[in-house]
Write the structure tokens for this entry.
Amino acid sequence: MDLKGKHILVTGASSGIGRQAAVDVSKLGANLTITGRNLAELKNTQAQLAGNNHFVIETDLTKAEQIKKLSTELKALDGIVHCAGIVKPVPVKFIKEQQIDEVFSINFKSVVLLNAELLQHKKINNNASIVLISTISTLYPYFGGAIYIASKAALEGYGKTLALELSPKKIRVNILQPALVKTAIYQSTIDTAFSEEEMHKYEKQYPLGIGETEDVANAVCYLLSEKSKWITGTCIPMDGGLTLGTLKS
């Protein structure tokens, strides 16, 4: 795969899947703009990128004025990887309005508003590729995941509509649905939603094991490349076999 000469935006690039995606995309020759709320960690990501023609823009995507500022500062894009997101496990009977607003603001609203701004300013080139990061939990929910899963289900519905509306410009939009991946979010899920014993039992349900950030980044690179030029509007489960069924004990 070759991304030489392409300009790619990666949000949520200060850690986890976003950081790994940025690093791997840079190794394929792309020029990157990376964004997130933690400037120090963004600089850490930048230091790991291959090549030199990369840019860092500190942005809080929950603030409309910062989304507008980012869209005006960006050069035309050949690809976007929307990785910014949060998890906030809470049982349904304890859900508060503030928690809904917080999760939807970054997981759904920020993606919708940023794409709208970029399209209005003609910052997305024809034949570009947009990758949205959802979750396998929209198909395989877990206790306490109602707000997070709902935000990602909304993202999937939006992504399919976005793919349809942008298809005349040959702009592709696809959605990845990772299961548990070893990131800070993975650790927070363990700490808040599972006991150690429950987590160990849950991990055994993955025939191919818990995912690594590289596994998701590989799929991102493919979807950004011309190798996927005939794929759009798809949701791609990445779950290590979790949803296949139950293995014998």
Notes: Helices lie at 16-27, 39-48, 64-73, 97-120, 146-166, 184-193, 196-203, 213-224. Residues 97-120 form the longest helix (24 residues). The first strand starts at residue 7 and ends at 11.
